[in-house]
């Protein structure tokens, strides 16, 4: 009997020692290191060489929290380049280091390539590509737009008409044309010729009022995103009434909006104090409408 107890005790102790030894040798799982910041330049999103964007991915990004700010340049729909928005990249990286940034080009209008709706659809292609690659990029496909001049017009129109999945959470409109039925444009015969040049009539129903159809101020609806607007009181290219009409229509639809008017023209002659004020208000709007969870 004593011998059996001795053997049983020996087995129990051996198993215990074996268990301890096994646990001691187990290597604890290491948590993955945070992703490093990364920049990918001239990412193609279509067959045209102009269909390209740069993407700035922040350090420590994750697919559950890293939202995206999209920059859309101006240039009258026929010129301009994403390089024109470089100042906004440094501003965002300084004040909103946890956001990803996409700085996009679109196919510029020519005599054979109309601007509308092609440039709206270019934005759609960019957002679709980013959404499809969200897991690889480790981004959350929620977007805010910052557009200047023609780029502001494209951003507004995309949000108000094409963003059916509500992926866009805000639009920043800096001197963007918003109402082509405004007498400033409607009474200008040269603009009416230009409008015919810009619109692909085959893409719209035959009875379409093209000036109204591509005017984002006239497309505001209950699903439009919060919009922050900046205009000059002496702008020779975009009348202040365009900004006021947009503000009034947003307010009528109970869409959150902010409207600021500075002394000066199309933005290039605004004072340093005005630029600083714009940056401060824009940063606050980003924090409110495209926040990054802690």
UniProtKB/TrEMBL annotation:
Keyword Signal: yes
Gene3D superfamilies associated with the record: alpha/beta hydrolase (3.40.50.1820)
Record domain BD-FAE-like: where: 54-250
The protein's name: Alpha/beta hydrolase
Signal peptide region: 1-24
Organism field: Patiriisocius hiemis
Sorted UniProt keywords: Hydrolase, Signal
The keyword Ligase is annotated on this UniProt entry: no
PROSITE patterns for the chain: PROKAR_LIPOPROTEIN
GO MF annotation list: hydrolase activity
């Amino acid at each position: 009997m004593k011998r059996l107890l001795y053997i049983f005790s020996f087995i129990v102790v051996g198993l215990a020692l074996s268990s301890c030894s096994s646990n001691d040798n187990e290597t604890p799982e290491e948590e993955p290191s945070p992703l490093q910041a990364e920049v990918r330049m001239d990412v193609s999103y279509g067959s045209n060489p102009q269909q390209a964007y740069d993407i700035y991915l922040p350090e420590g990004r994750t697919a559950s929290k890293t939202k995206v700010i999209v920059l859309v340049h101006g240039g009258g729909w026929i010129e301009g380049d994403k390089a024109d928005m470089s100042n906004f990249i440094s501003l965002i990286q300084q004040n909103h280091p946890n956001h990803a940034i996409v700085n996009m080009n679109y196919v510029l209008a020519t005599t054979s390539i109309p601007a509308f709706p092609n440039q709206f659809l270019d934005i759609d292609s960019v957002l679709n590509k980013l959404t499809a690659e969200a897991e690889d990029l480790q981004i959350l496909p929620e977007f805010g737009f910052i557009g200047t001049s023609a780029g502001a017009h494209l951003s507004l129109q995309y949000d108000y008409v094409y963003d059916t999945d509500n992926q866009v959470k805000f639009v920043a409109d800096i001197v963007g044309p918003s109402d082509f039925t405004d007498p400033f444009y409607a009474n200008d015969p040269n603009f009416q010729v230009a409008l015919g040049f810009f619109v692909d009539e085959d893409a719209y129903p035959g009875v379409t009022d093209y000036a109204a159809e591509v005017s984002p101020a006239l497309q505001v609806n209950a699903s439009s995103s919060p919009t922050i607007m900046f205009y000059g009181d002496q702008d020779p290219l975009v009348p202040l009434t365009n900004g006021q009409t947009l503000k009034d229509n947003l307010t009528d639809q109970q869409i959150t909006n902010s409207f600021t008017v500075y002394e000066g023209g199309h933005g290039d002659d605004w004072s340093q104090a005005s630029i600083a004020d714009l940056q401060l208000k824009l940063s606050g709007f980003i924090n409110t409408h495209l926040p990054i969870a802690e």
